[in-house]
Design a protein that fits this description.
- By secondary structure, the protein is of the alpha+beta class.
- It folds into 3 domains: 326 residues, SGNH hydrolase (Rossmann fold, 3-Layer(aba) Sandwich), CATH 3.40.50.1110; 151 residues, Jelly Rolls, CATH 2.60.120; 96 residues, Immunoglobulin-like (Sandwich).
- The protein is 19% helix and 31% strand.
- The strands form 6 sheets. Strands 2, 4, 5, 7, 8, 9, 10, 11, 22, 23 and 24 form an 11-stranded mixed β-sheet that branches.
- Helix 5 packs across helix 13 and helix 11 crosses helix 12.
- The longest helix has 19 residues.
Amino acid sequence: MAALTCARIVLPMAFLCAAALPRPAAADPALARPFSSGAVLQRDRPIVIRGTADPGERISVRLGAEVRQVRADDRGGWQATLPAMPAGGPFRLTATGVKAEAVAEDILIGDVWLCSGQSNMELPVQRSLNWPNELNRASDPQLRLLSVPPRSAATPQSGIGGAGWQRADRNSVIGFSAACYYMVRDLRTSRKIPIGAIDASYGGTRIRPWLPEAAGVALPGEGDSAAMLTLYRRDAAAAGVRFVATWEDWWRRTSRQAVGVEPWRAPDRLAWQPVPQVGAWDDWGVPKLDGFAGLLWFRRTVTLSPEQAKGAARLTLGRIEDMDVVWINGVAIGTGYGGDVRRDYAVPPGVLRPGANEIVVSVLNTAGIGGFLGPADALALVPTAGGAVPLTTDWRYAVASPAHASPPRTPWESRAGLGTIFNAMVAPLGPVALTGVAWYQGESDSSLTGYDVRLEALMRGWRAHFQRPDLPFLIVSLAGFGAPSAEPIDSGRAQVREDQRQVATRDPHAALVVAIDLGDRWDIHPANKQEVGHRLARAAGALVYGTRETPTGPRVRNATLAPGGVTVHFQDVAGALRTWSSDRPIGFELCAAAPDSCRWAAATVEGMSVRLASDGRPASRVRYAWGNTPVVNLYDDDRLPVGPFEVPIGR
């Protein structure tokens, strides 16, 4: 296999500057970004202040009346730990060196929440319901907001960039995370202390890049990814070669029950159709490709003269969304990721040949538009001699089977790599003290198994990073999205919800926030983030602040055999269970061990339980609200829904 070349062409642009630049020979003292003017620092816990200065420089750190003396290490970093303080302020924070002083004004002491996840956490207030009127309530000088710009890096970074802390007002709130803002706004109303909210969210991301690398490496099956990432830091081209071999092995394994071919070596075995034009396949007018998320193969035959086939060449393919792997004549040429990156691949000598040459490209799209995005005139094969060959037309495509919808991803990729987003968006926060974390993510993992294992690894990793083993986590269960079903079905989104529920049930410092009834089957980004925020604040009240209300609404306790059927028992019910728009609850299923054995069950409410009538068929488990967009009508007197679940039937 030929070596892949130039990290610039195979990686997101964020990795070009992944390594921190060396500090200049002399620098004034500086405070790290979480400690800029307007910051909120966590009350009642030791306050860790970080910054930079000249290596070895002695720094005096003062916050209010508290002072600590520290010395910068040999790389210029310093850290001072001040004693815990109660809620209050404002204070002045200074870091005074030999010749200069760094100053942050208007520092408040209160509660700090970190909000994180993918696009449903990222969605701003200006895309939520009734947002113009919500901005009329936005002004609150005791509520402070900090946005961490979405980015990734192959190694942990020291700075987060961005504009620093801002007071909540119309200008700062409009682009801030809606779910996070509505949560902390409620907490400001109920707690009456300063609140700081840090939004570190990045749309379209799997959970894997949010894990600290050490936590990810410890997961089953990640040993090879860790080795590739280590190799990438030393030799990106060699790491690319190793990854493509992994990709090819994955195709062979999954093809045993699917296509059973290697399209990069034997493209004639696929059913090819002409590509109408270079551009997103959503715009081709092919109904099955409108909004298609999955893998497509592309093929282009190029006829070369002996002169053109000599020596090396370059293959340029413009922008591609999302991920591509490229072969010429069965030889791997390159792999890339990201619709904002133009693909420009080196073709080593010996790959091209006189006559017909086959260019084969696999393109994975995970969401939104997919395919070659152009510009069309950027697509070309440019041999060292003999003239360039335009590739603007004559492409053909073939749709891969659904079994190939989730190929492996490079461990250095931004949205699905190993620790890449943690490195750039969480690690730079340092061991800053937090009240808790609100986590809203999972859509991008719905085609994968084992989300519960990865979520628990993330929680362990973040708790270790923030040096708080009991750090509270509020986990938002995925909202409904996608076509409803008239029959019981298996659903990746439902499985992620069940994994989230199981994790929250096992962890005494976590709470699940149910959002199944807040979804939109046509929009993966439902706009009712106000209610998400209300439920997050309620869960925070019960988990963190000791309020007496139930944290998340009714929770399933167990299911047991009963005369004539099964009884499902619930806890944390406010008042009693109620059914809306019907005299009985819907969405319950009885299932045997086989995956396709689930069927609807007739259900009736009995106080704080639900009775399912036996249909005379074997049943070993109960599912509820299981699907992409299930209709739910079972609530309690606080108007909180029973969330989706699957439980075994006991005796």
